[in-house]
Amino acid sequence: MALTWTNFASFKDVVKHYESIKPLVSKLHKREDDIRPIGDRNRKWERIVKISRNCYALSDGYHEGDDKFLSYGIHEYDYKTKTRTTHWDRLGKMEYYAPIVWRKHKDGTETVQVRNCIGDNSHYSMGRYAFLERHMPNGMQFIMGHSALQYVGIVGEKHYLAKCKTVPRGYYKAHSNQSYFREWMQTTDDNSALVFTRDGSELPYTGWIHDPTTGKSLPQKPKVNKELKAKYKEAIDKFFEWGMTMSPLLPLSHEYNQDKAYELRKHFGSVDYVSDEFTPTRAREILRSPNHPMRLNYWILFASSVADHNYSQDAGGWEYTYPVQHVETKEQLQRIKSKFNSFINTNAGFKTKPKQ
């Protein structure tokens, strides 16, 4: 399947391309479905959708708003009854959720709306980003930044393209009882999409002006609550010193570490995987209690998180080494202390997450 690149310079170009495409008809799609692939007909989900005579969407398919290539979250399968249910209240509108939407307004101006994928700030969609890279309007550039940040570039400027947090009401109703989704989902417009207006430059050059009322500011980085952490400074220092003293005596191994992690989960009544987002109140409980029964287990959780591993063909598997057991210089100790500091900041809840 060939990848298609477009570089539409005007609303007229979009309409012309749309009208040049013969609707795809098959056993799955009727002519009335108006499936018009933007390029290769084998990639039929990547298409131009006519919303109205003054609004056209460039869709990458399988996102909210696409009623022909449905988002995976719209379906639910019941394995007991072996039936699939389609929840249409989770659909939304194409002109809201499509990656690129061209509009021509009553005063003759033309605008383009660009939207990221749906999810929290760390979410990403390589399919969406590949589509945006190939189909940005003439005069615009899609920019893959770092730390899960994306931008739209125009001459001399780049604008942050935030993740979309707005979901259809049916989707919100279905997932709002789950803590992960509650942190970022909303049903009102989050103003995450960027809108640009053509500046009237003569073709083939296309200049764009960003509508300053659209888009969001860069997300804030997590911050350490220094005041809260200061209350635990003595306990943290003692725990680190104790752990480093104990480390050379411990039989650290992948199996041993897993056993200790299981004991930790079991102690707190959980069988779920313990990650470095271990409940802060439990972590602080261990820090402030020198005789806590899970003190060793908690240290091993840290020691295993900073382990080095390499695949050994001779051993036929992964081999692990533990820096906490091999400290010979001040520099090595400082590196471990730095990693421990980061671990404790997150693990014991001293680092506050910014609002999604």
What does this structure look like?
The radius of gyration is 27 Å and the shape is elongated. It has eleven helices and 15 strands. Strand 8 and strand 9 (157-160) form a beta hairpin. It starts with 10 loop residues before the first helix and ends with a strand. It is an alpha+beta fold. Helix content is 29%, strand content 18%.
Topology diagram in text:
Blueprint: H1 11-20, E1 47-52, E2 55-59, E3 75-78, E4 83-86, H2 94-97, E5 100-104, E6 110-114, H3 126-135, E7 141-144, E8 150-154, E9 157-160, H4 169-175, H5 179-182, E10 194-198, E11 208-210, E12 223-224, H6 226-230, H7 233-246, H8 254-267, H9 280-287, H10 295-305, E13 308-312, E14 317-321, H11 330-347, E15 351-352
Antiparallel strand pairs: 1-2, 2-5, 3-4, 5-6, 6-10, 7-8, 8-9, 10-11, 12-15, 13-14
Helix pairs in contact: 8-10
